[in-house]
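Open question from group meeting: does this chain pack into something compact, or does most of it stay loose? Before anyone orders reagents, we agreed to write out a predicted structure and look at it together. Recording both the input and the output here so the notebook holds the full record.
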Amino acid sequence: MSTTPGTPAPHIPQIRLYQQWLAEHRGLRFDDYDALWRWSTTELDAFWQSIWDYFDLRSPTPHTAVLERNVMPGAKWFPGAQFNYAQQVFRHVMPAHAAGFSAVVSRNEKGRHVELSWPELRRQVASLALHLQAQGVKPGDRVAAYLPNIPETMVAFLAVVSIGAVWSV
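Structure tokens returned:
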């Protein structure tokens, strides 16, 4: 069975899907988790490039290396690439919504249940991002908040990173 990222397969663990992808696309097979882990820690460039490819990460500019500087601190990953987390999250809004998947499912300590659809999450994020930009927030700025783990916190995080600012909570 061939499964691609983004295809719902709740009965198959993600790591198994990744291993199947590695076998199909890279000709790599691992007998057990330990063998996969060893490969991921000894072949850093191959492993992280496979993660980039498996999740079909996109950048308007190509990266020139996977790991340019293998020193800590100071490691430099995927130099040249530009990556926006929010953009990656929202790439599959319509298929996820059409399949009936909620974007956010939340229940607080008092039992309040909240679900946000993918289009609604995208709408709220865009609305807050526009407000933040109107307040002068721009790429590289830092936005900090003291918030609980609620859907509004996720909206704020995605809005901040969607404009290229740095989020701290």
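Observations to bring back to the group:
Helices lie at 14-26, 33-42, 44-54, 85-89, 93-98, 118-134, 151-162.
The chain has two domains: 14-81, 86-168.
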